[in-house]
Design brief:
single chain; alpha/beta; TIM Barrel; Chorismate Mutase Domain, subunit A; 2 domains; eight-stranded parallel barrel; 9% strand; binds phosphoenolpyruvate; binds manganese (II) ion; transferase; chorismate mutase; chorismate mutase activity; EC 5.4.99.5
């Protein structure tokens, strides 16, 4: 992936004055549904119309897509609206059919990126194509696996590459369907600044009410574009009903999003400042979330101590923690004074929690 500049051209060639927008339904359901949505998106900032034809569903027996038939409907979208078309491919047969139907861009889904065998099969089938290929992050937060997938595609001669950040699975329920782990996307950008990175707030949130916020965070972190699932009747969609927005909501969202362009130095300054501030906001949220988790573990210990009638303060254990944290802090350029202050405050909160449990 040495000649990275080459990768960027497909996005530059679109000559957009705003981030790339890809929109359309999660799944192509019927010809009428596909065309109705496409016509409502015609003439907006949407450059690529998306629709899933082959759907990777978590459990069998759900709607698994209309199959190759849907490619004809996508071709009609292109003819009638002028939008470019894109769809997900998950094996060599899909790639062959998509290329035969002149699909303008292909993406590889999160459940495919996890499998090196599938990625290799897809890469071989794509050999030498000049269509842009976007690789979604794998379902697990593994940057190497994501990069490895991209590398396989690149090695088979595909020069127009992009990546889609769609969040990561967790066992624990969170407010997201797939947690964004923004620092992983930031790391991706730092390592490969020339690979266009698109955000997919639909699969991150699983909830249309959160699409705007996640999209704004992505733009503040300098993402190159957004992929947003759009349906004229989201509630009755055959897949991902809770996360799709109507074309008119999408237009509102695009209007309200603040895009920070690079033009003069003042703007460049603001953009960089804003980017760094957003990174800090993301990290601060993580700190709070982790502290909350830490206190939950402390509560558990409080319960145990109550049952066994053991005292809250365990000095030996506490001094071990402090020593270790001072050392860890030093490795990261944090002063001993700061570490001691911070951990004493955390420890005090932990004691308060435990005492409440023991007395309660
Ligand atoms: C999709 O884009 O509809 C899709 C199936 O996404 P993901 O691979 O991110 O789950
Ligand atoms: Mn979907």
């Amino acid at each position: 992936m040495e000649n990275k500049k080459e990768m960027r051209t497909w996005l530059d060639d679109l000559n957009l004055s705003h981030p790339l927008v890809i929109a359309g339904p999660c799944s192509a359901e019927t010809e009428e549904q596909v065309l109705k949505i496409a016509h409502e998106l015609k003439g907006t900032d949407v450059s690529y119309f998306r629709a899933g034809i082959w759907k990777p569903r978590t459990r069998p027996g759900m709607f698994e897509g209309v199959g190759a038939l849907g490619l004809k409907w996508l071709q009609k979208v292109k003819e009638e609206t002028g939008m470019k078309i894109c769809t997900e491919v998950a094996n060599a047969a899909h790639v062959k059919l998509a290329l035969e139907h002149d699909v303008d861009m292909l993406w590889i889904g999160a459940r495919s990126t996890v499998s090196p065998f599938i990625m290799q099969e897809i890469a071989d089938a794509l050999e030498g194509t000049d269509k842009p290929v976007l690789v979604k992050n794998p379902v697990n937060p593994d940057l190497s696996l994501w990069l490895g997938g991209i590398e396989r595609i690149y090695k088979s001669g595909v020069k127009n590459i992009g990546a889609i950040h769609r969040g990561f699975s967790t066992y624990e329920k969170t407010k997201y369907r797939n947690i964004p782990e923004w620092q992983l996307a930031i790391e991706f950008q730092n390592r490969f600044p020339d690979i266009p990175l698109i955000n997919d707030p639909s699969h991150i949130t699983g909830n249309r009410d959160m699409i705007f916020d996640v999209s704004q965070t992505a733009l503040d972190l300098n993402f190159d574009g957004l992929m947003i699932e759009t349906h004229y009747d989201p509630e009755n969609a055959w897949s991902d009903a809770a996360q799709q927005v109507t074309p008119s909501s999408l237009i509102e969202i695009m209007k309200d999003l603040k895009i920070r362009k690079e033009s003069d130095t003042e703007e460049e300054y603001n953009r960089t400042l804003n980017n760094l501030r957003t990174q800090i906001d993301v990290i601060d949220n993580q700190i709070i979330e982790l502290l909350g988790k830490r206190m939950k573990s402390a509560d558990g210990i409080g319960l145990l101590k109550k049952q066994k009638n053991v005292s809250v303060l365990q000095s030996k254990r506490w001094n071990e923690i402090l020593g270790k944290m001072v050392w860890e802090g030093e490795q990261r350029g944090l002063s001993e004074e700061f570490i001691l202050k911070m951990f004493k405050a955390i420890h005090q909160e932990s004691i308060n929690h435990q005492e409440k449990i023991i007395k309660g």
